[in-house]
Amino acid sequence: MCQLHVLIKPSFYVLAALKGCSIAIACSDLQDKINAFWEITKKDLDDKKAELRNKDREMEEMEERHQVEIKVYKQKVKHLLYEHQNNITTLKADGELALKLQQDEFRKREAELARDKRDLKIKLKEQVGGVEVRGLAAGLCQLMHAADS
User: Fold this and answer.
1) Global pTM?
2) Where are the alpha helices (H) located in the chain, listed in sequence order?
3) What CA–CA distance (Å, rounded) separates 69 from 56?
4) In the chain, domain spans
5) CA-CA distance, 84 to 37, in Å (whole number)?
6) How far apart are CA 149 and CA 140, in angstroms?
7) Gyration radius (Cα) of the chain, Å
8) How far is the C-alpha of 55 from the C-alpha of 47, rounded, in Å?
9) pLDDT tens-digit map of 7-49
10) pLDDT (0 to 100) of residue 1
């Protein structure tokens, strides 16, 4: 028996003995109501405890799913960073190669232009020298012609 029953039962017997049977029946009804209330409250308490356990289990499952999601997102970020770093490395290598090829092409073109310039200077000197030689030859011819006449 619980403490409430221990406290109520002796008073029922005392009341029943003092005032008769009708009070004992009323007290018995009261005791039945208290017992029914006790059972209902105990069942409600058990239901609430079960509900609380279910909510705790649900929260634990949600926390586990959340941790898995975080792990997945971290892995995705790690993968993206790796890809980004690879792209940067590839772009740098491609840029350096393109720059080297342009520098080589520039040096080749510069050497060609320098060679063309040198060839043109030589050709110009030959032409100027040829004109001078022809001019000298014409001048000599005129002098000789003048001397003959």
Assistant:
1) 0.46
2) 3-19, 21-148
3) 20
4) 3-148
5) 69
6) 14
7) 59
8) 12
9) 445 555 554 454 555 655 667 788 888 999 999 999 999 999 9
10) 44
